[in-house]
Design a protein that fits this description.
heterodimer, A: 492 residues, alpha+beta, Beta-Lactamase, Heat Shock Protein 90, five-stranded antiparallel β-sheet, five-stranded mixed β-sheet, 13 strands, B: 304 residues, alpha/beta, D-Maltodextrin-Binding Protein, domain 2, 2 domains
C-alpha cells in the first residue's frame, strides 16, 4: 500500500516538474518571439521611412509615428536623421527615454540594437529596439521603437496562474485518489488481513461480509469457503481423533483387563491349588504349612498389585508442603537398601546438593516416586550395577541450563525462576529406541511379572506437581532419568 | 490517513507553495530578452568637427534611387576637397530657395527651369553642367503609343494627357510654351483630363499602360533599349535646351567654390574617375554660365 502512495506522490511531482519545465520553455520562446516580432516591426518601419527621411518629410514620418503609437504595446516611437536629430516622435517620447540607454546604433557594425530596461517614467518594462536606416551601408537615420513588455508579462502571469492551478489540481487529484484507494482497496484488504489473522490463530468461525460483486467479493467468498472447509476438516479430525482415542482406550482397557486377569489368574490358581491341597488329606503336615504360606504370599502379592492399581487409577491431588527432597531420597534409598540386603547387587551412589531449596511437594507421592525410580533402575540391572542419584539446583531460567556430569547448580541466592533437578542414572540394559516413547504408558513393561505401572505412576506424580521428566538411554550402557521441579511451582 | 500520510501532504503543500512563489516572482521580473546584438556608442560628433558641404537635390519619385545615384559623387567630392560632403533632399524648389537663403545647402542640382526660377530670388551661380554622351543639351518630347491613332498634337485634343511636374523644363515648360505659341491659350482645357505624374519614369509608364493617351517628358529618360519605349512613338520634339546645372550659393567662399568646380571638371577625364562618370551616366562635366539659360527665360515668357 505504501507503494501506491509513493507512486501517487511520484506522479504529482512529475506533473509539477513537467508543468514547470513547460512553463519556462514556453516563456523563453514567447519572449524570443515577442522580441523577433518587435524587431521585424521596427525594421519594416525603418524600411518605409527611408524615403521620407531623405526628403525631410516630417509630415509623413509623423503619420507613421501616430499610426504606430495606436498599437497597444508600443510605448514610444522616435525617428531621427543621420545626426540623431529627431524628425518625428510621439508626444513626450524624448522625455520618457532615460539617458543611459540613448545609444547610437552603428549601422556599419550591427543591424540593430536591443535594450531591455525598466522605464521609471512610464513605470513599465520596455524593450527598446533601434534600427539604422541604411542606403548602401551609409546611415541616413535611425528608427527607434519602445515596446511595452507589460502585455507579455500579463500573458506570462496568466500562464503562471495556469501552472499553479495545474499543480494544485494534480495535488488534489492525488489526495482524492489516495483517499479513494484507502476506502476501496486498502480498507477491505486490511479487513481481510485481520480476519485471516484470527483464522490463523485458530478461530475458524470467522466470516467476512463483502457486499460487492467485484474481486473483493469473490475473494471474500473464497475465503469463507476456505474457512468453512477448514472448520469441517477440524470437526472431522476431532471425531477421528476421538474415535482413535476411544479405540486406544478400549484397547488399553482390554489390555489392562487382560493383564489384570493374567496377574490375578496365576495367584488365584496357586491359591486355589493350595486350598485344594489343604482340603485334602495330606501325609506330611509341613506340606500344609508350606502351602498355607503360599496362599499368604500370593494374597500379599495380590494386595500389592491391587494397591498399585488403585494408586494408578485414582491419583490423589497433591497435598503440598515444604519438603526437603534430599531427605526423602535418602530415606527411600535406605529403605530399599534395608530390604533383602542379600539380594542387593546394585550400588547406590548419592550426590545430593545440600543447598537446594525446599520444594512444595506431596510427601507421600514423592516417596512413592523415589521408590519407583529406584526399583525401576534396579530391575534394569539384574546382574548388578551402579545407580547414581543426584540432585542440584539452577537459579536461572531454563532447565537446560544445567551443566553435564559435574553439573552443580550455581550457588547464589534463590530466585523465582529456578529449577531443582534430580537425576537417576543407571548402568543397566538400557531402553531400546522403539520403546522409549512408551515407557511411561500404563501397563507397559518388558519384565515378565511387572505391572507396568511403575514409571507410569512416576509420570502421573510428576504431572501432578507440574514438573518435567526427560529420558536418555543407550542399550547396553544404561539410562538416565532427569526430573525437574520448579522452585516457584510453574515449570517452563 | 496516518501520520506518514499527513507528513507527505505537508511536504507537498510546502513544495507547491515554494514553486508558486518562485513562479510569481519570476513572472513579475523584467523579462530579459537577450538579443541585444547591437553594439552601440555614445553620441558622437562627426570625427572631423568640420562643417560639411551640403549638396541639395530635388528628388522626383524614388529618393533612394537618387541617393544611390549621387552618393558616389558626394564621396568623391569629400575625398577631393578633404571635407565632409552630405546630400540633402528637398521636396520642391521653394524649399531649395529657403535652404539656400539659410545656407543650409551650398551646392544644388536643379533642372534648367528651376534654376531660372531660383535665380530670380537668390544669388546662386551655376558651376558646372552634365555632359551626356556627345551633348549637354536635351529636348522635350510628346509621346504616345505606337498603336494609337494619334500622330500629332491635334489628335490629342480632348484626350487624356500627362505632364510631369510644373517645375519641369521638359515635362511642362517647353510643351506648354509650344502650345501657347500655337495659339492654345489654356493647354489644360485643350485635353479632356490632365494629370501630373511627378516624374518622367511614371510618365513613361502612364502612357505605356494607356492610363493616359499622351505624355510630355524629357529625352534624358528616353532610352531605346527600354522595351516600353519600343511600343511608343514621339509625335513632337522641342528645340534643344541645356541640362540643369550644379549651382553654388552666392555666399559660398570663392576659393571653396573654385575647388569644387575643379573637382567636378575632373570627372570623366581621368582613369580613376571613369567608374564615377559611368555610374552617373555622363561623359563628364563642363563649365556653365548664367547666359546659357537665357533660352529658358525666353520660353518662360510664353508660359507665364
Amino acid at each position: 500500500m505504501r507503494f501506491i502512495y509513493a507512486f501517487i506522490f511520484v506522479i504529482i511531482i512529475t506533473i509539477t516538474i513537467l508543468s514547470l519545465t513547460n512553463y519556462f520553455r514556453w516563456k523563453h520562446n514567447y519572449l524570443r518571439q515577442a522580441c523577433d516580432e518587435g524587431l521585424i516591426l521596427t525594421q519594416t518601419l525603418a524600411q518605409g521611412s527611408i524615403d521620407p527621411i531623405i526628403r525631410n518629410d516630417f509630415y509623413t514620418l509623423e503619420e507613421y509615428v501616430n499610426n504606430l503609437i495606436k498599437k497597444k504595446n508600443i510605448a514610444y516611437v522616435v525617428i531621427m536623421d543621420r545626426h540623431d536629430r529627431v524628425l518625428a516622435h510621439n508626444s513626450g517620447a524624448m522625455g520618457n527615454i532615460p539617458r543611459e540607454i540613448n545609444k547610437r546604433v552603428r549601422g556599419d557594425i550591427t543591424p540593430y540594437l536591443v535594450q531591455t530596461y525598466y522605464n521609471a517614467v512610464l513605470k513599465i518594462d520596455v524593450n527598446d529596439i533601434s534600427v539604422p536606416v541604411l542606403i548602401d551601408s551609409k546611415k541616413w537615420g535611425t528608427v527607434r521603437v519602445g515596446f511595452s513588455l507589460e502585455y507579455i508579462k500579463e500573458e506570462i502571469a496568466k500562464n503562471v496562474f495556469v501552472v499553479i492551478v495545474t499543480g494544485l489540481i494534480s495535488m488534489l487529484l492525488g489526495i482524492a485518489m489516495a483517499l479513494i484507494l484507502t476506502r476501496f482497496v486498502t480498507g477491505p484488504i486490511e479487513k481481510f488481513a485481520k480476519s485471516m489473522k484470527t483464522v490463523a490463530a485458530g478461530d475458524l468461525e470467522q466470516e467476512i461480509r463483502m457486499d460487492t460483486t467485484d474481486e473483493f467479493g469473490v475473494l471474500a467468498m473464497s475465503f469463507n469457503q476456505m474457512a468453512r472447509s477448514l472448520r469441517e476438516s477440524k470437526e472431522e479430525l476431532k471425531k477421528t481423533y476421538q474415535r482413535l482415542v476411544h479405540k486406544e482406550r478400549m484397547a488399553a482397557l482390554g489390555e489392562l483387563t487382560a493383564r489384570i486377569a493374567h496377574e490375578i489368574k496365576n495367584p488365584l490358581g496357586i491359591i486355589k491349588g493350595s486350598a485344594q491341597i489343604l482340603v485334602e488329606e495330606v501325609e506330611k503336615p509341613e506340606i500344609k504349612t508350606e502351602v498355607a504360606g503360599y496362599i499368604i504370599e500370593e494374597v500379599n502379592c495380590l494386595n500389592i498389585k491391587i494397591h498399585d492399581l488403585l494408586n494408578h487409577a485414582k491419583p490423589k491431588p497433591p497435598n503440598l508442603e515444604e519438603v526437603d527432597l534430599n531427605e526423602i531420597l535418602e530415606n527411600r534409598i535406605q529403605f530399599w537398601e534395608s530390604q533383602r540386603p542379600e539380594e542387593r547387587n546394585v550400588i547406590i551412589i548419592r550426590k545430593l546438593n545440600r543447598e537446594i531449596p525446599f520444594l512444595q511437594l506431596d510427601k507421600e507421592q514423592i516417596r512413592q516416586l523415589a521408590l519407583n525410580m529406584i526399583i525401576n533402575a534396579c530391575e534394569a540391572m539384574p546382574n548388578g550395577g551402579e545407580l547414581r542419584i543426584m540432585t542440584d539446583w539452577n537459579s536461572r531460567g531454563d532447565r537446560h541450563d544445567f551443566e553435564e556430569e559435574k553439573g552443580r547448580g550455581e550457588s547464589s541466592r534463590p530466585q523465582n525462576n529456578g529449577y531443582v533437578r534430580v537425576e537417576f542414572k543407571d548402568t543397566g540394559i538400557g531402553i531400546p529406541k522403539k520403546d522409549i516413547q512408551k515407557i511411561f504408558d500404563p501397563f507397559f513393561t518388558t519384565k515378565e511379572n511387572g505391572t507396568g505401572l511403575g514409571l507410569s505412576t512416576v509420570y502421573r506424580i510428576i504431572e501432578n506437581h507440574r514438573g518435567k521428566i526427560e529420558v536418555e538411554s543407550k542399550e547396553g550402557e544404561g539410562s538416565r532419568f532427569s526430573i525437574f521441579f520448579s522452585v516457584n511451582g510453574v515449570t517452563g | 490517513m496516518g501520520k506518514k500520510g499527513k507528513l507527505v501532504l505537508v511536504i507537498l503543500a510546502v513544495a507547491v507553495a515554494v514553486a508558486a512563489a518562485y513562479l510569481y516572482r519570476d513572472s513579475r521580473k523584467a523579462p530579459v530578452i537577450s538579443r541585444s546584438d547591437g553594439e552601440a556608442e555614445k553620441d558622437q560628433m562627426d570625427k572631423s568637427g568640420q562643417r560639411p558641404i551640403y549638396i541639395g537635390f530635388i528628388p522626383q519619385g524614388n529618393a533612394v534611387f537618387m541617393v544611390k545615384k549621387w552618393q558616389p559623387l558626394a564621396d568623391y567630392l569629400a575625398k577631393e576637397l578633404d571635407m565632409p560632403v552630405e546630400m540633402v533632399f528637398r521636396k520642391s524648389y521653394r524649399e531649395i530657395i529657403t535652404a539656400l537663403s539659410n545656407a543650409e545647402i551650398d551646392v544644388c542640382l536643379t533642372g534648367s527651369f528651376v534654376y531660372v526660377q531660383t535665380r530670380e530670388e537668390t544669388n546662386i551661380r551655376p558651376l558646372v553642367r552634365r555632359k551626356k554622351y556627345g551633348s549637354d543639351l536635351y529636348h522635350s518630347i510628346m509621346v504616345v503609343r505606337k498603336d494609337s491613332q494619334i500622330n500629332s498634337l491635334k489628335d490629342l485634343q480632348g484626350k487624356k494627357f500627362a505632364f510631369t511636374d510644373e517645375d519641369s523644363t521638359a515635362g511642362y515648360l517647353l510643351p506648354v510654351a509650344m502650345m501657347r505659341q500655337r495659339g492654345i491659350s489654356d493647354p489644360e482645357r485643350y485635353f479632356s483630363e490632365v494629370i501630373y505624374t511627378g516624374n518622367h519614369d511614371s510618365a513613361l509608364l502612364a502612357v505605356h499602360t494607356c492610363s493616359v493617351d499622351g505624355v510630355a517628358l524629357s529625352t534624358t529618360r528616353w532610352r531605346p533599349e527600354n522595351p516600353k519605349v519600343k511600343e511608343l512613338k514621339i509625335i513632337w520634339k522641342s528645340e534643344p535646351v541645356p541640362l540643369g546645372p550644379f549651382s553654388v550659393r552666392g555666399g559660398l567662399d570663392k576659393d571653396l567654390a573654385q575647388r569644387i568646380e575643379e573637382a567636378f571638371l575632373k570627372i570623366g577625364k581621368t582613369p580613376e574617375t571613369r567608374d564615377l562618370s559611368d555610374h552617373i551616366q555622363i561623359e563628364g562635366f563642363e563649365e556653365a554660365s548664367d547666359s546659357d539659360y537665357d533660352i529658358i527665360r525666353r520660353v518662360e515668357k510664353w508660359v507665364f
